[in-house]
Write the structure tokens for this entry.
Amino acid sequence: MARMKFVCDAERCIECNGCVTACKNENEVPWGVNRRRVVTLNDGVPGEKSISVACMHCSDAPCMAVCPVNCFYRTDEGVVLHDKDICIGCGYCSYACPFGAPQFPAAGTFGVRGKMDKCTFCAGGPEVNGSQAEFEKYGRNRLAEGKLPACAEMCSTKALLAGDGDVVADIFRNRVVQRGKGAEVWGWGTAYGSKQAGQPPAGAKS
Amino acid sequence: MKRLAILVCVTAAFTVLSACGEKPQTLGSGARSDTAAFQGTDNAFAAPGWTKGDKASWEQGLKARAQNSQNEYTKTGTSK
């Protein structure tokens, strides 16, 4: 069974923000909400690294655990989605998420927090696949169209990999073997529970 | 006397059945069920090469797409 995962190769990310733009365009994400963003580690220091961050669709998602109205669900492919008709916008998921993925539109009256919005791995929501209702609430359902998330497919250097965990891990492993460095995968251990992955080499700055 | 008995019966019936018209006021909880992605969509943007509703075909299509679009080493033949 396919198990969808994201991998960001920090050796390749050039901080172009193509993934951010692709996501906003594909899903028509409202102003002020960024489902994906590029973060620079050790900014300004020689050897700085950039990574693209969004919801990682964790194996044991903390957002699911803390939601008081149980609006989250996980698809058979391991994609963590939520039902905006159930969400009450309390923000607990935002505090629980180690990646800062949950976003809240602030366009409501008196600054009221709206329904939570986050990366869907381009898999939409509980509405009918590819329907207008699904698009308006969650964005495009590319998985149901047989496609991968727009951010990864748009990435110019293929730093951001998305797809079946076995496939993307294999692609990344091959790269590391070829270049002989850069085996650290930021966030992989946090999201998918591997203890040895995501650990910086001894003596590294970050 | 008979009229009073009927009145009492009608009043008692209204009192007992008054709650039957109540609508449930509990908050909804739990997400609705979602259709699996391999069931496909009805729009015209679906990628070619896989059969709608066939899970194995959908998974194979995505794996091929991931390799073709994200792994340039397959193109140069230097995959280890």
Q: What stands out?
A: The two ends of chain B are 101 Å apart (CA to CA). Chain B touches chain A at residues 27-43, 45-47, 49-50, 58-59, 61-63, 65-67, 69-73, 78-80 (CB under 8 Å). Chain B has a mean pLDDT of 85.
